[in-house]
Specification:
Layout (H helix, E strand, L loop, with lengths): L1 H10 L4 H13 L4 H8 L3 H13 L3 E6 L2 E6 L3 H31 L8 E6 H12 L6 E4 L2 H7 L4 H10 L4 E6 L2 H6 L8 E6 L1 H4 L4 E5 L2 E6 L4 E6 L1 H21 L1
Parallel strand pairs: 4-5, 5-6
Antiparallel strand pairs: 1-2, 3-9, 4-7, 7-8, 8-9
Length: 253
């Protein structure tokens, strides 16, 4: 039972030696440091340090009689009171920190640019992502399947192509070589697009990847979700990967 009590006191914030010494004092009552050390099975100097620590927490009182120090345990209720005071203190600190969070956030810059990840579900979510591509300040790089795009969002793309062209946002795209893709790329000059077709047998794919500014967009038009990663580092790496793919596709075009 005493061992269980010691473990509980440790859970409440006392060290192992503090718990042992406090329990010893509860059993023996007012005692000399020598008696406490013997009963708690620790050396005298350690017992003295532990008793002084317990005294600071109000769990032990010290009285002196004829140059002899006597140590008396505080009632166990003092432990509960200490915990209540600590809880109140930290609750006040939490509220204090929350009150200055806006100021802290306003001056926080971190160690560098922070990536941002957004997840969109459903066809409306995918439309939202396509709309974001119309904010691009540079040529969009894309891996895309014309069939998947137009099957998923029938009627959406004629207006999308028109608005992208009006905003003078160019695009370079790699498409699987299909009849629908061949028909679409006839409008490349009009729609400010440069396209390369790759073998549909060797390199067919249905998800779409768009890379622009500091963003990389992954879209599954079959499973109807889109993932937008806003990261300068990731976007730069994917742009270079696209350029390598473009060079390779050129050779096999």
């Amino acid at each position: 039972m005493e061992k269980d009590l010691e473990e509980k006191l440790i859970e409440y914030g006392l060290s192992s030696k503090e718990a042992r010494v406090y329990l010893t004092l509860l059993k023996t009552g007012t005692s000399l440091v020598t008696d406490v050390a013997k009963e708690a099975d620790i050396n005298r100097s350690t017992a003295y340090v532990v008793l002084e620590s317990l005294a600071k927490d109000g769990l032990v009182s010290i009285t002196e009689r004829k140059n002899v120090r006597l140590y008396t345990p505080a009632p166990p209720e003092r432990i509960a009171l200490n915990l209540e005071n600590s809880a109140k203190k930290y609750s006040e600190l939490v509220n204090s920190v929350k009150s200055i969070l806006p100021e802290l956030k306003s001056v926080y810059s971190g160690s560098g640019p922070k990536p941002k990840i957004q997840f969109f579900e459903g066809l409306e979510g995918i439309k939202t992502v396509y709309e974001d591509t119309l904010t691009s300040k540079e040529t969009i790089r894309a891996f895309a399947s014309i069939e998947s795009m137009h099957a998923a969002l029938p009627g959406f793309f004629p207006d999308y192509y028109k608005r992208r062209t009006e905003r003078n946002i160019k695009i370079r795209a790699i498409f699987p070589d299909t009849d629908q893709a061949k028909e679409r790329i006839k409008n490349d000059q009009q729609e400010k697009r440069e396209s390369i077709l790759v073998s549909k047998d060797k390199y067919s794919f249905t998800p779409e990847i768009n890379i622009y500014d500091h963003k990389v967009v992954f879209m599954s038009l079959k499973e109807r979700f889109a993932l937008v990663i806003e990261s300068e580092e990731v976007a730069d790496a994917l742009k270079k990967a696209f350029e390598l793919a473009w060079l390779g596709a050129k050779k096999h075009e």
